[in-house]
Amino acid sequence: MKASIGTQGLILNEPLLWEKGAKGRSGFSLPRRDVERCAMDKKVIGEAPNFPDLSEVDVIRHYTRLSQWNFGVDTGMYPLGSCTMKYNPKTNERQAALAGFAGAHPLLPARLSQGMLQLLFELERYLAEITGMDAVSLQPAAGAHGELAGMLICHAYHRQRGSACTKILIPDTAHGTNPASASLCGFQSIPLKSGPRGVLDPADIAALMDEQTAGIMVTNPNTLGLFEENIRQVAAIVHAKGGLVYCDGANMNAVMGIVDMQAIGVDILHLNLHKTFSTPHGGGGPGSGPVCVIKALERFLPVPRIVKQKGKYALAENFPDTVGKLHAFFGNVGVQLKAYSYIRSMGPENLKRASQMAVLNANYIKEKLKGTYHLPHDRPCMHECVFTDKHQSVYKVSTLDIAKRLMDYGFHPPTIYFPLVVSGAIMVEPTETEPKENLDSFVEAMLAIAAEARENPELLHRAPMTPKLNRLDETGAARNPCLSD
Amino acid sequence: MLSTVGSRDLDDLFSTLPADCRRTRPLKLPEALTEWELNRHMDTLAGRQATAPHYKVFMGAGSYDHYIPASVSYLLGRSEFSTAYTPYQPEISQGTLQAIYEYQTLVTRLLGMDVANASMYDGASALAEALLMAIRITHRTTVAVSRAIHPLYRRVVQTYLRPTGYEVIELDYGSDGRTDLSGVDKVSELAAVALQSPNFFGCIEDLQSAAQTAHADGKTLLVACFTEPLAFGLIKSPGRQDADIACGEGQSLGIPRSFGGPGLGMFAAKRAFVRSMPGRLVGQTTDRQGRRGFVLTLATREQHIRREKATSNICSNQGLCATTAAMYMASLGGTGLQELAQLNYDKCTYLQQSLQRAGLKLPFAAPTFNEFVVTFPAGFDRTYQRLLKRKIVAGLALDEYYPELAGSYLLCVTETLAKEDLDGLVKEVAA
């Protein structure tokens, strides 16, 4: 094998913010005082917060050192399944930072915000076209917020029809956010077992679906990386009982230009702009989770909606059936701008090509590793594939050990122990932005780890060895929570 | 690669999809732009926006214009922070984790609370989640919300609480611009009383009295909300006044306005309620060699473990914005934050006094921070339009949100407006 990219370098220690600095320092150029100081009412005045005083160079070095303890997409391959950690083009950052956008106040009269409103209006149309849905609201601030918007729409739809729905079907492969979002709308989750082929069996839906069930929440492609091939029959069964089909679009990266979500029976879909549309995830956000619906559900979308009248853009509130507002303003607009920039840079052919390459890359890894790692569903996958630690567990090596050892080889580990239906899952999503040589290096690393598992399992239990810290005591952290200094 | 996977071509990769699931029509989208074409297009769109410094924007209402040091923007360019995912693998995410731990600590110190989470989407959703948390803790189903809370936040609260049938009672504001608490003790079984301070009118509420009123039955919680955390450089923190949950918008702390988002939902509580809190928490621990490190913790509250019984459905939050706020707070320091808050207070007071001298009426007498309500003479809307043409945005008209305040405007002043800008506005509106 070629030399691994994993290595060690000079990483510096850095204390907590308040363990450095000295009283009276400041890293902020205080604006000129051009009015007189006035005393505030004594009854409301408090003492200054106990913050450390630091100089600019103190702050810069602090965060520069911290950043070097992190692994991002810009550091290396990040095959985190279901998270679509593709490369984030830097032109997107330039566009979102333009003074006209970054400095825009959300409540300005519409005629002073025509540039922004035009852009957001067009982005809604692009997302509708890419998904095959009819109408879009950009307001949800993240994927789970988009799910909540979707469930609120589902709830409002049934209430208007006078149907007293109390339940919703959720496959066991669903993201944990799905049942949590449904329960915010008062729906009881009815778990659905996926069939032996890893996809939904229409007979199971038919057995559970009744008039008290609001619909189904599916993820397609699902979290096993498989396309729900019976989705049209599933949708027909749900629709026949008056239910709606909600699709978690977290995995849309596999099917842009390939699948029309409305044509396969989806009524409501959310997207993750920070996955499919290349906006950076920021170490935990901000994301953006637009909700897309069919024409019949458009009237329930969050307000305000962006409308175009006589060539001018405006914000409209007059939608009496709306679920209301989910965000004080219009969601994470800065993130939406980056997704717009991505779609305009890519164009229609390259978006489809991105999905094709994402699927090719995942299948390539699947084929290269399936003899060595157990592959529960050995058939063509979409943008991700799920292995397990079954072959390694005989040497007392677990998925966790494999994941930690990958760090030493210079890779971010895949998603592990998810989906829950696969014991010891290792979920690999390479994305389209990794070239073949990176996929080959990843495969080599995984094969080398499998060999280590056979020959020197103790090495894997000790991993990782190259990061600044080794395994952390998570049990202790939860038993005696220390959440601030 | 195609031969390895056994496909003839790229289309063949999808041959297992049923034919009736395949899209037949190509995507109808604009053709790809080069980087330079995109730059020109975006420059044109951005150029149609009215922003400072070309416009003098006296508008706050939950979105504030503050200076952002170049050092903060520069640090955010460290893509090890921005291109990472949620720190599920702590060994290679210590940068994010320590930064968030420090953010949580700075937030507890700013708000005077015991524990803070890693962030929520924005101030409005943070308030809605705080009320749901109070409902979970008290097992009660009614909340009382002040009408002096940001009207758009109250609409988000309605969206979150309506489907499950929880009741929201509104508390009116009094003649001084602060919440009238006299109705609270007439309502029994309240889960929470929610106030904003400084409130939507800029008035500083007496949270201490509100806490006493709320706590009278031994169970009702006080939720203290805010849109302008810079105020806590100067005024008493919610924690010092016995608030049980403090939540609000942190956009002021180094985050650009960006048409209202991304901002930062700040969320903190008393220690006793930590296990009922929504959102992610970072905790301190050690590695196998006993070295200090940080991990995501108390995940048993969260949806990926508890699924439908989770304290919230939130997963992605506003992590990078929380990091930004920490960088900004670290740059200011305690001394700098107090000085900056004082300067904001002084500038706003200067404008208030100048307007009063010019004969304009300020309907609310309570002390304010950064924002205040002014009542203009009838027909001011024409002046407002005239000022827009002169690139002055003279605040936010309140009639849309408070019909009884027709003719009144909410004005905001921060450190980014100079004395001459303030004098200019006074001259225009007095004319």
Report how far apart the termini of chain B are.
Answer: 75 Å
Domains of chain B (count): 2
CATH architecture label of the largest domain in chain A: 3-Layer(aba) Sandwich
| Largest interface: pair, residues per side | A-B, 189 and 193 residues
Output the radius of gyration of chain B.
24 Å
Largest sheet of chain B: 7 strands, mixed
Q: What percent strand of chain A?
A: 5-15%
Main β-sheet, spatial strand arrangement of chain A: 1-7-6-5-4-2-3
Quickly count the helices of chain A.
14
Describe this structure in words.
With 485 residues, chain A is α/β, with parallel strands linked by helices. In chain A, the strands form 3 sheets. Chain A has a 7-stranded mixed β-sheet, sandwiched between helices. Chain A has a 3-stranded antiparallel β-sheet with strand order 10-12-11, covered by helices on one side. In chain A, strands 8-9 form a two-stranded antiparallel ribbon. Chain A folds into 2 domains: 92-344, 3-Layer(aba) Sandwich (Aspartate Aminotransferase, domain 2), CATH 3.40.640.10; 348-463, Alpha-Beta Complex (Aspartate Aminotransferase, domain 1), CATH 3.90.1150. In chain A, 35% of the residues lie in helices and 10% in strands. Chain A is globular, with a radius of gyration of 25 Å. Chain B starts with a helix and ends with a helix. Chain B has 2 domains: 56-69 and 333-430, Aspartate Aminotransferase, domain 1 (Alpha-Beta Complex), CATH 3.90.1150.10; 71-328, Type I PLP-dependent aspartate aminotransferase-like (Major domain) (Aspartate Aminotransferase, domain 2, 3-Layer(aba) Sandwich), CATH 3.40.640.10. By secondary structure, chain B is α/β, with parallel strands linked by helices. At the A-B interface, α1, α2, α3, α4 and α5 of A face α1, α2, α3, α4 and α5 of B.
